[in-house]
Amino acid sequence: MWKRFLLLPVLALGPGARAQTAAPGLEAANLREDVRELSRRVADLGLRVEKLEAENSALSAKDRPPGQGYATVAQLADAVAELNRVIQSSQAASREEVLRQVAAQLDRPGRQAGAAPETASKSQPPRAPGFSDDFPKEGVKYIVQKGETLAQIAKKTGSKVQDIINANKIGDPSRILAGQTLFIPGGK
């Protein structure tokens, strides 16, 4: 009966176990050998697991460049919303800058004439559209230079301001432009 119990542990070890029909000293030596074999196999399996983990890490790194992660849909939506806010802010600032530049350009002719546009329009009421034909019919053509006024042109050419206004049908004398061609009656 004692042999039956002694064989059960050997059968439980499986196919690599040695048959134990010998003395207890031999039995202990066989068990030690089996434990050494199992320890060696566990160590081999541990090395294989480490190698597989290293290969898995290398493949993961190759699949995805460093520093790049995956973003969620919510993160992408937030990024797009932020970009839209930046674009709208930039457009608003750009619009304001353009409006400032246009306002400065519109103010320039009034300053060149010697008065701000508000005061120029208040100090000189608009003239009636009727112009007199009472001016000399002979004269010269003149191209207005930057910053010139009708008074300066009349003085330079020896003409009268009112004759230049009538000949060129100028409704607002403060609004002549550089590069504009005028007929100067009786001018030299």
Number of E strands = 2
The total of helices stands at: 6
What structural category do the secondary elements indicate?
mainly alpha
Bin the helical content: 55-70%
Distance between the termini: 148 Å
Low-pLDDT segments, ≥5 res: 1-12, 116-125
* Main β sheet profile: 2 strands, antiparallel
Question: What is the N-to-C order of secondary-structure elements (H for helix, E for strand)?
Answer: HHHHEHHE
Walk me through this protein's architecture.
The protein is mostly helical. Among the domains are: 61 residues; 57 residues, Roll (Membrane-bound Lytic Murein Transglycosylase D, Chain A), CATH 3.10.350.10. It contains six helices and two strands; from the N terminus they run ααααβααβ. Strands 1-2 form a two-stranded antiparallel ribbon. The protein is rod-shaped and about 150 Å long.
